[in-house]
Amino acid sequence: MSTNTATPGAPTAAGERSSLLRLYLSRGILAVAWAAVFAGAHESVDALAITLLVVYPLIDAVSSFIDRRALPAGSERQVTTFNGVLSTLAALAVGIAGAGGVAPVLHVFGAWAILSGAAQVVVGLRRRGPELGKQWPMLIAGGLSFLVGITYNIQAAGDDPSLDVLAVYATGGGVFFIAQAVLLGWKARQLRTRTA
Fold this sequence. Notes:
Layout: H1 10-39, H2 47-69, H3 75-97, H4 102-126, H5 136-156, H6 164-195
Helix pairs in contact: 1-2, 1-6, 2-3, 3-4, 4-5, 5-6
């Protein structure tokens, strides 16, 4: 018999955990799948490669807007909305940049990675409570995205830019999203065990 008493916020926290777990897991799997397809489809910046380049930020945009629907009004919702709009604009920009070749694509991707990484860190910090698994994977992923975005812009300005790095970027991001989903699942299981 449990001695814990339910708090008014507990069902809300449990629902938010479950919703985020599904969202993070789906987002992570899609990112890894995208990376696998893109790794074999970017020898040249052709129609297929450009389509894939447009799709990746759109995955992030859709995820942000799904996340936004579950959030109450406030700064976290505003940042999530900003990231959704930013990723939508990045998809359009990378589609246009694709006509110019590898360097413009890397510049756009780099700028997007910097801004979306910063937004991800802000949201992760606001979700740092124990109910949502401390958000370490999201904070690390956002910080790395920010730093990697800077290196993409440096690489784009160099003599031999390559899109190979984008598959690595997507794989890393996907793994961090999956790790956060696993953390949320573990946290939910812990709480169920305590209240059993």
